[in-house]
């Protein structure tokens, strides 16, 4: 489980200006993150604009990501949905070469009961060749996975090893930390609250802003994990404005603008997402310049 301690980054999917997948940009991004000192990569989570990728594109991206990573860091694949049988088939047909785990979002739109959520993950755990990381993000799914359901799954299935929690509820985090198995990981799903979550006992974060600022963000997380909050707090506070700007007009358009400025990859997104406004882009660029001088 130590492979999922620290900073994971949910990779953006770079696109060419014609909307096709930019594999050179993806290679550049992967190397940028590894050079920046992050701990593991997450391919095709929400930040990867998975909803607008075809099945064939997903397979090619997963395979290419594993090829470029070349076992340098642990790899996680995002495979989720709101049709349990379809997700199970995607997991069973997934080429797991080079991957260590699957991140699977709680079913969205359907608004299942807690028992429905439990049975969904039970089914996936029974067919998955890899360990599973739960993903609770009520702001996107329209339903919340309760702490009781999270811990019930954690206790009942040994291959359910962690949860990425993006509920924003510290009451929920408290309950998970109290009731989970000792080796089950609580992972922050929100960049701005990673520091207090690690202080509570979280193992780290799956980050968005880490795409652009891997060293700055992972250094802060490492300080937290080492218990050096006196040094970590100023680093955390220095990232507040950048984080707010990156999410101001949607994810991943904001972080892609930063990556374009850093010459890592372009800022093209697929509809229905749109590029950020010129004024916000200028503000993000100015903040990136300021933060780059602090490294």
UniProtKB/TrEMBL annotation:
Keyword presence, Methyltransferase: no
Residues annotated to bind pyruvate: 47, 206
Q: Which HAMAP family match?
A: DapA
Q: How does it assemble?
A: Homotetramer; dimer of dimers.
Name where it mostly resides. Answer: cytoplasm
A Gene Ontology MF term for this entry?
4-hydroxy-tetrahydrodipicolinate synthase activity
What the entry lists under InterPro entries is as follows: Aldolase_TIM, DapA, DapA-like
Q: What Enzyme Commission number does this protein have?
A: 4.3.3.7
Active site residues of this protein: 135, 164
Instruction: Please state where this protein is localized.
Output: Cytoplasm
Q: What does this protein do?
A: Catalyzes the condensation of (S)-aspartate-beta-semialdehyde [(S)-ASA] and pyruvate to 4-hydroxy-tetrahydrodipicolinate (HTPA).
Q: Name one Pfam family in it.
A: DHDPS
Kindly report, in one word, the top-level EC class recorded for this enzyme.
lyase
Which reaction(s) does the protein catalyse, per the Swiss-Prot or TrEMBL entry?
Answer: L-aspartate 4-semialdehyde + pyruvate = (2S,4S)-4-hydroxy-2,3,4,5-tetrahydrodipicolinate + H2O + H(+)
Its protein name is 4-hydroxy-tetrahydrodipicolinate synthase
Residues of the site described as Part of a proton relay during catalysis: 46, 109
The species this protein was found in:
Pedobacter punctiformis
The alphabetized UniProt keywords are: Amino-acid biosynthesis, Cytoplasm, Diaminopimelate biosynthesis, Lyase, Lysine biosynthesis, Schiff base
UniProt pathway annotation: Amino-acid biosynthesis; L-lysine biosynthesis via DAP pathway; (S)-tetrahydrodipicolinate from L-aspartate: step 3/4
Which protein family is it in?
Belongs to the DapA family.
């Amino acid at each position: 489980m130590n492979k999922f301690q620290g900073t994971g980054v949910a990779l953006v999917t770079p696109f060419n200006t014609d909307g096709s997948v930019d594999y050179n940009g993806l290679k550049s991004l992967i190397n940028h993150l590894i050079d920046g000192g992050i701990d593991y990569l997450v391919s095709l989570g929400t930040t990867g604009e998975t909803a607008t990728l075809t099945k064939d594109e997903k397979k090619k991206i997963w395979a290419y990501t594993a090829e470029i990573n070349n076992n340098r860091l642990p790899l996680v694949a995002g495979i989720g949905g709101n049709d349990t049988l379809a997700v199970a088939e995607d997991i069973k047909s997934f080429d797991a070469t080079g991957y260590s785990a699957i991140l699977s979002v709680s079913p969205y739109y359907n608004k299942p009961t807690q028992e429905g959520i439990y049975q969904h993950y039970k089914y996936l755990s029974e067919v998955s060749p890899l360990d599973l990381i739960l993903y609770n993000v009520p702001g996107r799914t329209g339903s919340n996975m309760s702490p009781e359901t999270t811990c019930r799954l954690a206790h009942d299935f040994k291959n359910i090893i962690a949860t990425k929690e993006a509920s924003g509820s510290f009451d929920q985090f408290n309950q998970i930390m109290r009731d989970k198995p000792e080796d089950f990981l609580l992972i922050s799903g929100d960049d701005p609250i990673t520091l207090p979550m690690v202080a509570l006992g979280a193992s780290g974060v799956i980050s968005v802003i880490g795409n652009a600022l891997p060293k700055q963000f992972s250094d802060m997380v490492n300080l937290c994990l080492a218990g050096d909050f006196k040094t970590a707090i100023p680093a955390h506070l220095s990232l507040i404005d950048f984080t707010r700007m990156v999410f101001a007009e949607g994810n991943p358009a904001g972080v892609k603008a930063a990556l374009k400025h850093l010459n890592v990859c372009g800022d093209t997104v697929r509809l229905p997402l749109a590029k950020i406004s010129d004024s916000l882009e200028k503000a993000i660029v100015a903040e990136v310049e300021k933060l780059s001088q602090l490294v």
